[in-house]
Specification:
This protein is mainly beta and 257 residues long. 2% of the residues lie in helices and 51% in strands. It has one helix and 19 strands. It has one helix spanning 83-86, and strands at residues 10-15, 21-26, 37-42, 47-53, 56-61, 67-72, 90-96, 101-115, 121-128, 137-144, 150-156, 161-164, 169-175, 181-187, 192-198, 204-211, 216-222, 231-236, 243-246. Strands 5-6-7-8-9-10-11 form a seven-stranded antiparallel beta sheet, with no helix packed on it. Strands 1-2-3-4 form a four-stranded antiparallel beta sheet, with no helix packed on it. It has a four-stranded antiparallel beta sheet with strand order 12-13-14-15, with no helix packed on it. It starts with 9 loop residues before the first strand and ends in an 11-residue tail after the last strand.
């Protein structure tokens, strides 16, 4: 049993995909009783256990429910970061649910953590300093949970988006210096990527899914990032032209480059 006097201290509660455990973040600014941390409730032992001490954010389960990852904020976070970013970044830490032991710790100012389909890797975005010393550069990195090896995928001045393309690839959205979005397919083993599509008529691309049977990436185009624009659903595969799925009426030029 875990007793918390203020319900607002509990956040990010969620069940594992196999429904054998649930997690919750306990946040106490003054922390008078030392209860802050990431907690896990496992059905097999019917009680809450603290898997990690200190402030954490962004807890996410692996697809098989074996691992739980989060961004640990117990380290020094630069005050030069925007206030919103300070609340969302941290060290990537992965917990093995069976033992509640940490099996991976990497990165410093990481966010947007996603497990690979087989649960053996995590992808995340790391905030890094640019040539002027400001934290305005985003680097997409992939970490292998078993070996701890970290691979850099791409660097961009704007926050990227991505989805796993199987266990060995990533569909990544970046923007050029003028804000033109493009989507690429990165091959992790070959350490190379191929651009699939780009279009200056859209404000942003949002990767949604990868269809392995057809080697197809599904993504959304956004005409205006303010929230008042229109959205369209597209697909694209290596070597092919983008195909608009919805809406089907009208014509939109979508040139690959």
């Amino acid at each position: 049993r875990l007793t918390i006097s203020d319900p607002q201290m509990i956040s990010s509660a969620g069940w594992s995909p196999n429904c054998q455990a649930c997690c919750a973040v306990i946040s106490a600014p003054s922390d008078p009783h030392g209860k802050s941390g990431l907690y896990v409730f496992r059905l097999k032992d019917r009680k809450f256990r603290r898997a990690m001490r200190g402030p954490v954010t962004e807890p996410v389960w692996s697809g098989d429910g074996r691992y739980l990852a989060c961004a640990w904020q117990g380290g020094a976070i630069p005050k030069s970061l925007p206030a919103g970013a300070q609340m969302q970044v941290g060290v990537v830490r992965v917990i093995d649910l069976a033992s509640l032991r940490q099996v991976l710790s990497t990165g410093k100012l990481a966010r947007d953590i996603i497990f690979s389909p087989d649960g053996r890797k995590v992808v995340f975005t790391e905030l890094v300093r640019d040539e002027y010393g400001d934290f305005e550069t985003y680097e997409v990195r992939v970490a292998d949970i078993t070996s701890g090896r970290v691979q850099s995928i791409t660097t961009n001045r704007r926050r990227p988006g991505y989805v796993w393309a199987g266990n060995g690839g990533l569909a990544v959205v970046t923007k050029d210096r003028y804000g033109v979005p493009s989507i690429s397919l990165a091959d992790l083993s070959a350490r190379k990527s191929a651009r699939l599509a780009s279009n200056r008529e859209y404000a942003d691309f949002v990767p949604l899914a990868y269809v392995p049977s057809r080697n197809l990436v599904v993504y959304k185009t956004v005409s205006d990032t303010s929230g008042n624009g229109t959205e369209e659903l597209w697909t694209v595969k290596p070597g092919g032209a983008p195909v608009r799925l919805f809406p089907r009426v009208g014509e939109v030029r979508h040139a690959k480059r």
